[in-house]
Structures are given as C-alpha cells and as structure tokens.
Amino acid sequence: MDDLGRPARAVIEGLVRDVVAIQDRWRIDDEWWRETPISRMYYQLQLEGDRIITVYRELPEGLWHEQRY
Amino acid sequence: MRLACVTIPNFRIALERTRARATGAAHERVSATTLIGRPVAIGEPPPGANEIIDCSPEAAALRIRPGMPLRDARTLVPDLILLPPDPVYYGRAFDSMLDALEDTQPQIEPGDLGTVFTTLAIDPLLCVTFSPEQSNTKTPSLQSPVSSLQPEHAAVARLLDAVRQSAGVEASAGAAEGKFVAWIAATISVPGEVTVVPAGREADFLAPLSTAFLPVSYDTHRKLANYALPTIGDVARLPIGALQSQFRGEGRRLYELARGIDSTPFLPRTRVEPIAGTIQMPAPTVNSNALLIGARQLVGRLLQRPDMHYRQVRQLRLRLVLLDGGSWEHTLTFRDPLGDEEGITFVLKKLIEPLQLAGPVEEMMLEFIGLTEETGKQRSLLFAEQARRRAQLFAALRQLKAHFGDESPQVSRIVEVEPWSRIPERRYALIDYDL
User: Fold this and answer.
1) Cα B166 to Cα B70, B102, B161, B341, distances in angstroms
2) Which chain B residues are within 8 Å of A69, Cβ to Cβ?
3) How confident is the model at residue B185, as a pLDDT?
4) Which end of chain A, N or C, is more open, meaning fewer C-beta atoms within 10 Å of its C-beta?
5) Please, are residues B6 and B160 in contact by the beta-carbon 8 Å criterion?
6) Measured between alpha carbons, how far is B31 from B78 in angstroms, rounded to an integer?
7) Which chain A residues are closer than 8 Å to B416 by Cβ?
C-alpha cells in the first residue's frame, strides 16, 4: 500500500506486480442489520503488463481479497 | 355416532404463551411477561390479509374479534399486543397433538386448527365396573367434572391428558352424538374439564345456548338477531317450514342443528408417510429468484425419492421460516397432477414471484401432501432433446458416485440469483446436483 492506504503492488500467481493505475474505486456497505455487516472498499487496478484485476479490502479489519468474478 | 371433541380455545395464543414461558420470549420484540394476562392478538400484517387471526380472552373482552382489520383493532385497544403469525409453529404443534390423540384413540378427524374429533372407544375394563343399574344412578348432569366415574368421561379425560403432554396446553373436551353437539360441549367447557351430553338430551343441552354457536352464514346470524331469536332453543321451537321460508337453503340445517341432529360424516384421518424436505437458505433472503432456486432444489430432491417413482403430485405445502421468528405457509392444489420438476417449479414460480414477506427467509420446507397412484405420462416431443441430455448428465453423475463412493467429487451448477446485487458473491450460487 502507498502512504494514502491505496494498493501499490499485488501478488499475482506468485509474482509481485506494480499497480500502474487505479481505474476505479467504490465502497459497499450492506447488511448493516446483521451481526456481521458487509463493509468493503473495492479497487479496479491496472497492473504492469496491462492486466486488470479487482480487489477489495474488508473494513475496518483491512484484509485484502481478489474478486475474480 | 358418539364422538368426542377436544379443542384448545384460542389455539395460537395458547401456543404463543406456552412458547413464551418456555423460551422467555414469544417474539424478539415482545418479552414473555407481557403475554400473560394482557390483551394479545395475532394479526396478519400487510401485505397479507391485514386482519386479526386470533385473540386472547382479555382482548376478546375488549371487543377484539378475529377478522377485524388491524387498524380497527389498534384504534379500539391502543395497548393491544399484536404478534405476527407463525403458521409453521402452529401446524407442527397441531400435528403433534393429532399424533398424541391418535395414540389414545385410533380414529381421529382434524377439525379447525386446535380442534380434533375422535370416536369414543370405551375401555371395556371401565365398562365392566359399571352395571346398568349403576350407570342409571350415575347418569351425569349436563356438565360433570372430570373426576366423575362415568366411562365416557374417563375416555375423554385421557384425551385431555394426551394433549397436555404433547402440546403443554390445557384443552377442553366434550362428548356427544355427532360433531356439532360434541364441539359445542367442548367449547363451553372450562379448560381441563369435560362435558358429556347424554344421548337423547341434545336439544335440552343446546336450548339455552346462544345462536352464535350455530355454524351458519353471517347473513343467517344477522337475520336470527333481527327476528329476536337469541337462543338455539328459540330456533328449535320453530317449524321446519317457517325456517325454510325465511332462511332458504340453510333453513333445514338450522332446524336440524337446533335439535342436535348433525349428519356431517366422521372422516377419520388417513396417515400417509409425508414426502417432505427442508433447505436452509445460504443467507436470509426475500429475493424471489433465490427462493425459487431453493424450491427447485427441493422439488428435484423429493422427486428423486424411491417412493415418488411413477407417481405424481396433486397437492403440495410450502412453508417458509422467517428470520424474525415468524413464518409463512401456503397449500397449493394443482389442476392436473404433476410429476416433473419443470411443471411443479413453474407453478411454484407463480406462487413465489408475487410474494411479499414480512421478513427474510431462513428456511424453506416443501411437502408433497397429495400423491397419485403409480401412473405413466406421455412426455412432449418438443422437450425430448433437453430431457435426453439431462438424463445423460444424471447417468454420468450416478456413475461417478458409484465409482468413487463417498469420495466422489462434489458436482454443482452455477445459477444466477441476484444479478443486480452490489455484493458479487450474492449474484450467483452453487447448487448441488442431488442424485
């Protein structure tokens, strides 16, 4: 992550790749009425080699996941 | 025919209070103590019928009545405790009550929820202890306590014990000639007590009772009030011609009922092994697509059962358990018996799609309650190719399972559930192939 808490590098298939650009980002807050509400910050990233992936960070724990579909 | 009637007055309220005592809360918004001695009603909220279904005696004393619109009830009694209905819970409790009674008396007929009719099989050992002379001297009054040593009393008291043990609720009971008089005898009894109406005394028993007990239409009740006929005895004094001319088709029935003549046949419950299944929703949902996928999964699972081979379904019951503790239930009768997954799912879709529930669904139960005998049905040629590929797929899956046994790979299919959801994993679901 960079100083602003944005993703700067990603490990894809065992290789570390730099983030070239953040194409989009959005936040989802849902199911707030349940015991485990959903709160996520999504990023659509362009990696070196022009590969595009979507990742999200669980809030507030800060775990990162790739969204593959 | 001598029959007994066992009834639990305000069945749903009694169950809610029993549950409240047992679990500490009847509903997450109502504490247990608020249900005791307070005006309580069960109402179907909008988008349902929006009316009162059942109410406690305290609420009835404040003029709350079943069928009353919820808005009127709230206006009439502002501190009325209104609970959402839980038909699945009531249905299960009634089923266990039926089973318990069936263990005591072999032939029973379920009436309205909370009411059961049974034949009266008198214990011969008890009969032996009563000679005819003794029986004559101990002819009970119209209302006798349970402790009376009359054989019918003893037989009916055993039914009350069975209900007490199965439902944890005190029922009242009556024994008489025919269903109508037995039902009234049970209804006017104090919970835990039995009223036996001796044969031939039906008219005397009914005479002082209100005409409100007569199971006739609302119009007829209104006319009876207009003609100043407050008691059943007043009706019994009228000739059949007068009743028929004033009440048309219901005149004859009024004439007979007022004299305690009830020719309604006793139809014993036939016990069939239920073909039923339950599915837990992966996440509580109100989405009709997700519900439909669950329903399809259940239909496929039930149709695969060996006892469904070559048989078709006439009637099914869908029950949904809601997240907030309530439930929803509907019984569906098909115009023609159906035996294929597509056909049954299509009808369920028509039921589920317009459904507006009071809360998200946690659990779905499907039961086939009306089945045909073994039969064959010509399939449409148009879907032959689709059916052939489906059969091939199932055959391949069965071979996999036979080959690998318990370690066979899990085979699933991806179905679209909420394609519009902002949460990606809510858009699709993995559904197992049931074999």
Assistant:
1) 32, 12, 9, 37
2) 424, 428
3) 92
4) C
5) yes
6) 18
7) none
What pLDDT sits at residue B148?
42
Query: Tokens in use for B428?
Result: 């699709």
Low-confidence residues of chain B, pLDDT below 70?
24-33, 46-48, 121-150, 272, 373-384, 433-435
Residue B137: the pLDDT is 31
Per CB-CB distance under 8 Å, the chain B contacts of A28 are 422-423
From chain B residues 396-425, the ones with a CB under 8 A of any chain A CB are 422-424
Tokens 């019951």: give the residue: B317
Instruction: Tell me the per-residue pLDDT of B35-59, one tens digit each, with 9 for 90 and over.
Output: 778 899 998 776 667 888 888 888 8
pLDDT at B31: 62
Say if residues B400 and B433 touch (Cβ distance below 8 Å). no
Helix, strand, coil distribution of chain B in percent, nearest 5: 45, 25, 35
Q: How far apart are CA B140 and CA B196, in angstroms?
A: 8
For residues A31 and B43, the model is more confident at: B43
Residue type present at position B53: I
Dihedral in degrees, nearest 10, Cα atoms B333, B339, B343, B344? 50
Q: B422–A30: do the CB atoms touch at under 8 Å? A: yes
Query: Is residue A1 less than 8 Å (CB to CB) from chain B?
Result: no
